[in-house]
Design goal:
It is built from ten helices and no strands. It has helices at residues 2-10, 13-21, 25-50, 58-73, 84-87, 94-123, 126-146, 149-161, 165-182, 185-207. α6 packs across α10 (185-207) and α8 (149-161) runs antiparallel to α9.
Length: 208
């Protein structure tokens, strides 16, 4: 909020209006269309995961995605996007939503690293690509550890020891859902493909 406020202090309304007026209406229309398409794909990604174990409707996920986007814009690290848990609490178990959100973010990191590797290979030294490939490997290994039953057992016992029984139940549910989704390569493949499209469109939107 402080950063957003400082931007509006540094940039006067007249300067903002001048900058917007310099953009052609067609460009703004195209950018708006791409933005809406990107958010629709984001909602579709989540919906595909949810349908693996829940009957939540796409309109409900679509609305929650937009609310999460708004919350993410005003919170550090876009942590507000996890408000999906709140906005879908009447339709989806909290553990299900946490699992879906975590897996979707993990695939997003994987896709962005893949784009970074491609860009690095095309425009910089090949040695830099190895760093990104190692990063992708790190993400995959972390994901495998996350769905390991031993990690779930340790975390569940730790939460029980400190008296967080309700939180433990939600965490265990989230781990169960993560393992269930990990056993569905076709679902993960579709989500990954859509994520590639989503971020490709996002890059194109900023380029234009």
């Amino acid at each position: 909020l402080v950063l957003l406020g400082s931007i509006f202090v540094a940039v006067s309304p007249s300067e903002l209006i001048d900058a917007l007026s310099a953009v052609s209406p067609l460009t703004m229309l195209v950018a708006a269309g791409v933005f809406i398409t990107v958010q629709t794909i984001a909602a579709l990604n989540l919906y595909i995961f949810f349908t693996s174990f829940n009957n939540v409707s796409f309109p409900a996920v679509f609305r929650a995605t937009w609310f999460g986007l708004a919350a993410g814009l005003i919170t550090p690290g876009r942590i507000g996007e996890f408000s999906l848990v709140y906005f879908l609490q009447d339709a989806v178990d909290e553990g299900d939503t946490v699992a879906v959100a975590i897996l979707d973010k993990a695939l997003t990191v994987f896709v962005l690293l893949a784009y970074a590797a491609i860009g690095t290979y095309l425009y910089t030294s090949i040695s830099a690509v190895s760093v990104i490939i190692v990063s992708i490997g790190f993400v995959l290994i972390t994901a495998l550890l996350a769905v390991n039953p031993g990690v779930q057992t340790w975390l569940g016992n730790t939460l029980s020891y400190y008296g967080y029984e309700t939180l433990r139940d939600h965490v265990i549910m989230a781990f169960d859902r993560l393992r269930s989704l990990a056993r569905r390569p076709s679902v993960i493949g579709v989500n990954t493909a859509l994520t590639f499209v989503k971020w490709g469109l996002t890059g194109a939107m900023f380029y234009t």
